[in-house]
Amino acid sequence: MTRKKSSAARPELPEVNFSEDGEIRYLHLGTEWIQGSMFLDRPYDIELEYVQRMFGWLLFFPPAEVKGAHAMQLGLGAGTITKFCHKKLKMTCTAVELNPGVLHACRGWFRLPPDDERLRVVLADAALEIQKEEWRGTVDALQVDLYDEEAAAPVLDTPDFYRHCRELLTEQGCMTVNLFGRSSSYAESVEKICAAFGEDAVWAFKPTREGNAIVLAQRTASCPSREDMARAADALQAQWGWPASLWLKVFKPLVK
Q: Can you tell me the mean pLDDT for 152-177?
């Protein structure tokens, strides 16, 4: 989902376009900023490092229970997370996107499958949609990536928003959020997440080279042993080829 900040009427939505560089296609919202990407020959794999880290919740979730669990994405982007959850992890997926042009691009240019019994894209304002009773307590993995066309700061970043996000989650559910770790708003965003979830339930990656910092918050705080986390990371690396075994060097609880 993408939108400009405004306290007045619903703003004009940005133009959606794409570019290609070799084997990779990129989604843009009328600017040079990358809003998502896809390998042309491997459309269901994940190319960007920060997007791989958005799956940090897999370090906490029982592997045998991933298939059939409910993943919700706030902000469709190029559909990368939704496609991976649906095609690779065999999860039930709900994506909430404000801009119909983004959905059209994902279906036409980025190989997002049509809605089916396990996939539903909702065209709506995420701030309002997540307050609906039908979603409360149903989401096992909530992945939040909400930036406008300038990619300057999250468009939904209030204590109430994060409180509503927590209410979506099952008892073992996790939220991952993409923040810009080198921006002045990062510490404020983390403080708001902690206020909604509790400091002992919040973990964070150090920023990637591009500055994306993934923050993870648990509905129910837990702190697995380092050995258990290492086994989970090794399994993710072996299965998906991500550098997950290195994650534990840059992924820490806020409260130790």
A: 90
Does the structure show a pLDDT above 50 at 232? yes
pLDDT digits (tens, 9 = 90+) for 53-87: 999 999 999 999 999 999 999 999 899 999 999 99
Residue from 134, 140, 175 nearest 156 by CA: 175
pLDDT for 14 equals 79
Instruction: State pTM to two decimals.
Output: 0.90
Query: Nearest CA to 200 among 189, 216, 213?
Result: 216
3-state class (DSSP) for residue 146: coil
- The amino acid at 6: S
Q: What is the DSSP letter of 43?
A: T
- Would you give the DSSP letter of residue 58? G
Q: Look at residues 100, 114, 126 and name the one whose alpha carbon lies nearest to residue 15.
A: 100
Torsion of CA 5, 213, 177, 65, to 10 degrees: 160
**For residue 114, how many C-alpha atoms fall within 13 Å in the half-sphere facing its CB?**
1
Give burial (CB, 10 Å; 0-12/13-18/19+) of 199.
Answer: middle
Residue 154: name the closest of 121, 182, 177 by CA.
Answer: 177
